Amino acid sequence: MTAPRADSEVGPLRTVLLHRPGLELKRLTPRNNDQLLFDSIPWVGRAQEEHDAFAAALRSREVEVLLLAETLVEALRDERAHAAAAGTAVDRLLLGNELADALGSHLSTLDAPALATVLMAGMTFEELPAAEGASLVRRMHHPHDFAVSPLPNLLFTRDSSVWIGDRVAIASLAMPARRRETVLLDLVYAYHPRFRSAGRAYGAHSAPVEGGDVLLLGPGVLAIGVGERTTPAGAESLAHSVFADGLAHTVLAVPIAQDRATMHLDTVCTMVDRDAVVMYPAIGDTLVAYPLRPDGADGVKVDGPVPFLSAAATAMGIDRLRVIDTGLDPVTAEREQWDDGNNTLAVGPGVVVAYERNVETNARLEDAGIEVLRIPGSELGTGRGGPRCMSCPITRLPL
Fold this sequence. Notes:
Elements: E1 13-18, H1 23-26, H2 44-59, E2 64-67, H3 68-76, H4 79-88, H5 92-109, H6 112-121, E3 123-124, H7 136-140, E4 146-148, H8 157-160, E5 161-164, E6 167-170, H9 181-191, E7 199-202, E8 214-218, E9 220-226, H10 232-244, E10 248-255, E11 269-273, E12 276-279, E13 288-295, E14 299-302, E15 306-307, H11 308-316, E16 322-325, H12 330-338, E17 345-348, E18 351-355, H13 359-367, E19 371-375, E20 392-396
Parallel strand pairs: 1-2, 6-7, 9-10, 12-16, 18-19
Antiparallel strand pairs: 1-20, 3-4, 5-6, 8-9, 10-13, 11-12, 13-14, 13-15, 17-18
């Protein structure tokens, strides 16, 4: 096995972490899908078929696919991980002490696969173990209310952790519906035999940073989107961390609109080759960056704002970044941006995975010399994410 390391967005992909949709998606209803950050209720069986096609496309290019559910179960076989996980699933403020104690005791008796299921899919009040005595908390909640919330956004493994060099950054997720995801990733990276020796580049208790906002433009160069999910404090904190660890010499903090259509930087821009990006044309001329560089022992120098594309090229040591637009007319571009046309996953220089429904964008990528591996995504996309969102590269070969 190649040691975990990723220094770019387009180096040949060798190992990736995915999460196959499971019971957590079946928890979505018209009553809770907005709160759980889904635009509609997915057809779970079809979403699983689409995800299987995604994994198959990666394996066809000799990419090792690790599944989050399996790695979590393996981590939970460690008694320390099992005890920690059982504790983190119990919300005393919601349940009260008596019900919380009963749930904690129950979870501690589950084997690793059963506990992993509860951690990912949640548990309703109806499913809570029987307890002696009366409980106002149990009586006043609807049976289908969640005593342990499900995590349907686990599908988007890019957001909760990202590898920078040979270290993993555990994201600090901004939305309440997603915050417990980082607990599971913490457990995987701390207790799974494959990752126990991995160093950390960032911690889940730091200022908000999400992996969808972190682009590894090239060795030593990061772009961090600052918008709905990643704060200026988060971008600056991550910059301090990667500078201190010698993982980067330049970080570009890139402001993006704070709305759902552009929740992360990778919803408007992803790399498709060593010197090329696919970008939403509506922001190409206006996207700016604040370059951050080390300044002394612990300081950070902040410049800008300057045009993002030129700042990125300068930091990467190239003349310019080639830009492939997602549509010739504004309506097509907007439709395909919403359908994750910009959210591609590179499996190597000039080879990307993309949703088949983005016909115009895929054609423009191929016209620019990029090989496109098309996958279905009508159900996977209901949570607002494409192939890049659904993948956490663990190992990429150097460019």
